[in-house]
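About this split. The held-out portion is used to measure sequence recovery: a designer receives only the structure tokens and must propose an amino acid at every position. Recovery is the fraction of positions where the proposal matches the reference. Here is one held-out target exactly as it appears in the evaluation file.
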């Protein structure tokens, strides 16, 4: 048995299949049953809608009359470079997209997705026609614009009776994500060829992961310490980041990047007219419309969010900080001489400009949950930093911080992480 699994692990090159095999061996316990609570599907749906509306309404005073002149819509332009139309798919290309995707069945699917993949060769002409009709017309099908949301407790220890302890998990039809993958392949290819993607963004890019987001930051902090420098690591926290993206600003950014005509029309259709229903303990809420945000649980949503926030890096670099992102998780770090007394002012100034950038982009920076970790040059060094931004003080007295699932301590020993994993 050991030899069998050793050979199996050695032959697996797909990380998803590798972890699935590990999971089958570890035999994890089944997920806990839904908590007993008096909450209803409609209550949860109204809360999710209200939370996004409350954040978006804060920006009515700073909304500019024209996104083309607003600083929120600034991005590198690409003169003479454009993606104005999609290339139609062949039946073989559609079949490859359909059969190589993970079969995630959504309650909105008419049949299970694994069954759809099994019978795909027989119905691939119709599916190819549907996808190509969308690509050539610049219209995303209305039937694919509704999401099925399941609320999950953020942490098992939280009170299940409190509505704000839940996060929405969005499920989309399998065919809609197949169409998105067709668009993703062509758009990401265009962006890569023209060097329009943020090189410090590891989220949802081929060959990247949380590891490629963590490693360069950790190595930079260790190198600085070996050179006798102290460092500060700041982990930004955003509230409902994907849900508050302004559609007008996003479309303007896409246009400035060279996406035009039929392709831009497709994205406008893709973003607008969306809705969701919450499924909760056998109940189904009414449909709630979405006027902002990129679709959670989608294939294109993460790429669009990365495009939307790409100019944040310019703000960070202007203050001498380095950064690395994974989707909406941003790590800022700066190394400095232990005798440097200007660090507090530099951190405050950088965070102030980041906060302003966030407001211009209709995103909410949650400073109360933003973490600041100081890594001293030597264990004996003590740094007394005073950080104040937007009438809030940012504490640096914590000894460790959770960064992309890893417990990073102020000595870079990772003993807290090892202890938490070994429990």
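Reference sequence for scoring:
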């Amino acid at each position: 048995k050991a030899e069998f699994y050793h050979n199996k692990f050695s032959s697996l090159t797909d990380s998803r299949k590798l972890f699935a095999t590990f999971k089958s061996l570890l035999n994890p316990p089944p997920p806990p049953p839904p908590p007993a609570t008096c909450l209803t599907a409609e209550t949860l749906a109204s809360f999710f809608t209200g939370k996004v509306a409350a954040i978006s309404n804060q920006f009515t005073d700073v909304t500019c009359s024209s996104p083309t002149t607003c600083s929120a819509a600034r991005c590198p332009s690409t003169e003479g470079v454009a993606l104005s139309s999609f290339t139609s798919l062949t039946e073989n290309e559609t079949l490859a997209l359909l059969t190589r995707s993970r079969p995630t069945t959504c309650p909105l699917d008419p049949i299970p997705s694994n069954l759809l993949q099994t019978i795909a060769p027989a119905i691939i002409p119709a599916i190819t026609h549907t996808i190509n009709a969308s690509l050539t017309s610049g219209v995303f099908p209305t039937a694919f614009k509704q999401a099925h949301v399941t609320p999950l407790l953020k942490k098992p220890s939280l009170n299940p009776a409190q509505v704000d302890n839940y996060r929405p998990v969005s499920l989309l039809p399998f065919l809609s994500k197949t169409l998105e993958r067709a668009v993703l392949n062509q758009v990401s290819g265009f962006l890569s060829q023209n060097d329009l993607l943020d090189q410090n963004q590891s989220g949802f890019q081929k060959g990247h992961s949380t590891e490629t987001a963590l490693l360069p930051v950790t190595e930079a902090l260790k190198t600085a310490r070996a050179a006798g420098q102290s460092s500060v690591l700041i982990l930004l926290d955003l509230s409902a980041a994907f849900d508050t993206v302004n559609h007008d600003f996003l479309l303007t950014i896409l246009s400035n990047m060279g996406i035009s005509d039929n392709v831009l029309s497709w994205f406008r259709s893709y973003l607008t007219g969306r809705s969701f229903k919450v499924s909760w303990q056998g109940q189904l809420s009414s449909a709630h419309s979405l006027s902002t945000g990129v679709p959670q649980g989608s294939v294109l949503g993460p790429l669009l969010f990365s495009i939307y926030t790409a100019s944040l890096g310019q703000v960070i670099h202007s203050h001498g900080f380095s950064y690395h992102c994974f989707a909406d998780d941003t790590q800022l770090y700066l190394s400095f001489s232990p005798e440097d007394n200007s660090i507090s002012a530099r951190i405050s100034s950088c965070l102030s400009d980041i906060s302003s950038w966030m407001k211009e982009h209709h995103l909410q920076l949650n400073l109360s949950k933003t973490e600041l970790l100081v890594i001293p040059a030597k264990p004996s060094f003590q740094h007394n930093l005073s950080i104040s931004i937007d009438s809030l003080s940012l504490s640096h007295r914590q000894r460790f911080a959770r960064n992309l699932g890893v417990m990073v301590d102020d000595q870079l020993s990772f003993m807290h992480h090892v202890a938490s994993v070994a429990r």
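Annotator remark: The CA atoms of residues 88 and 132 lie 5 Å apart.
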